[in-house]
Design goal:
Blueprint: E1 2-5, H1 19-26, E2 37-42, E3 46-54, E4 63-65, E5 69-75, E6 80-86, E7 104-106, E8 112-116, E9 120-124, E10 128-134, E11 138-147
Antiparallel strand pairs: 1-9, 2-3, 3-11, 4-7, 5-9, 5-11, 6-8, 6-10
Length: about 150
C-alpha cells in the first residue's frame, strides 16, 4: 500500500510499466469534471472508473482483494477512509475468489485505517486487502484499475 499526493505519481513509475500512463492521465485532466463511468486508457490493461459511492460505517466495510489488478483510488469530493490488512493474514472468507470479477471478500477486521484526502491517492497491490468507502454520506471517487504484470 502506498499513500501520496497525485503530484508525486512519477515516483512510482518503476513499480509497474502502466503506472506512467495512469499518472500522466490523472495529472493531465480536470478530475472533478469527469463523468461517472469507465474510461479506457489501454483496453482491459488500464482503465479508470469514476463513481458516486455510498460511504459506510467502519464496522460494515468488508476487506477485499484482487489478483489481476492493482487499484489506485482517489477521493474527489471529500476524504475517504480505507481499512487495510496484509492479505496473507486473512482467514474469514465470505466466498471463494471470483475470477470473473477479480475479487474476494473477507470478514476479517482491518489492522489499520488510513484517511486519504482529495488530491492524494492510495495504491493497493494484490497483497493488500482493503476496505474502501468508509465514512458518511456519498463520495465521488476514481478507481484506476492497473493490470498486475508481476503475477
Amino acid at each position: 500500500m502506498i499513500i501520496d499526493s497525485l503530484t508525486n505519481g512519477e515516483h512510482y513509475f518503476t513499480l509497474n510499466p502502466l503506472f506512467s500512463k495512469a499518472f500522466n492521465y490523472l495529472n493531465s485532466v480536470n478530475l472533478e469534471s469527469l463523468e461517472v463511468g469507465r474510461i479506457e486508457l489501454q483496453a482491459d490493461d488500464l482503465y479508470v472508473i469514476v463513481s458516486d459511492s455510498s460511504l459506510k460505517k467502519q464496522e460494515k466495510a468488508k476487506l477485499e482483494v484482487h489478483n489481476d489488478y492493482i487499484d489506485i483510488q482517489i477521493p474527489l469530493s471529500k476524504p475517504e477512509v480505507f481499512g487495510w490488512s496484509a492479505r496473507q493474514q486473512l482467514n474469514k472468507e465470505v466466498a471463494p475468489f471470483d475470477k470473473s470479477k477479480d475479487i474476494q471478500f473477507f470478514n476479517d477486521l482491518p489492522i489499520s485505517y488510513h484517511t486519504v484526502t482529495p488530491g492524494c491517492f492510495i495504491i493497493f497491490f494484490p497483497g493488500d486487502a482493503h476496505a474502501p468507502c468508509i465514512g458518511e454520506g456519498m463520495i465521488r471517487k476514481i478507481i484506476v484499475k492497473v493490470r498486475n504484470l508481476k503475477k
